[in-house]
Amino acid sequence: MSTLWVGTSWKMTKNLAEGRAWAGGLREHLEGSAPTGVQPFVIPSFTATTTVRGILGEGSPVLLGVQNAHWEDAGAWTGEVSVPQAQDAGAQIVEIGHSERREHFGETVATTRLKVAAALRHGLTPLLCIGESAAIKAAGGSTEHILEQAAGALEGLGTEELSRVVIAYEPIWAIGESGRPATVEELIEPFASLGRAYSDRVTGILYGGSVNLDNAADLLGIEHVTGLFVGRTAWRLEGYLELLRIAEAHAAR
Ligand code: PGA
């Protein structure tokens, strides 16, 4: 059984004091090693990257990420952060193509492809987010849509490069305050399709969208799900620690 990746993006939440408290609490709890069979990761805002890196320490069992990065290494791109800059700040993962970035900031399949390539070029793990809207789901196009998003972003990668990619399937209708948790039944077909296409070829295929302490174990039980990518439930450290416990118990089965 593959390692279960369980992590959180803080999105645009937490000031430095709050970030320090969360990261410090996690470090204390883990005492230098990850739960067996689980790969924890945290993706703070850019302003907290070096702070969280410092608290977790070099060689931490918790991987650190950024929520976006530009595809160019440097240049006149006001407001952007490059992969080498993210790496310099201690990041090991680059989140790419979250639906909030696709919806509000013009992220496209073409830009996700450039960003995946940039992350791989510098040895960082691309965490590629894909997911369909409620309208696409209602029209019966979910699977086709997410396979297109994935294929477009991963086009042209060799076997070794692809093996370093993590995919997160996050249906837009299930994300955030306005989302509703997906049922296990709704996720079987998308994960079967993603599994057929990618399960032996990438590092992991995670589920995200209203993951909570009541549904986490069931979600991990879906075939081809190899981890959870979590927002709100993990923003409280206690919630995140409980998710790690649930994943550890699942990995031990
Ligand atoms: P949520 O966010 O867990 O708060 O629904 C999930 C996500 O956007 O990754």
TrEMBL record:
GO terms for molecular function: triose-phosphate isomerase activity. Its EC number is 5.3.1.1. InterPro entries: Aldolase_TIM, TIM_sf, Triosephosphate_isomerase. Pfam families: TIM (PF00121). It catalyses: D-glyceraldehyde 3-phosphate = dihydroxyacetone phosphate. Keywords: Cytoplasm, Gluconeogenesis, Glycolysis, Isomerase. The keyword Ubl conjugation does not apply. Homodimer. This is Triosephosphate isomerase.
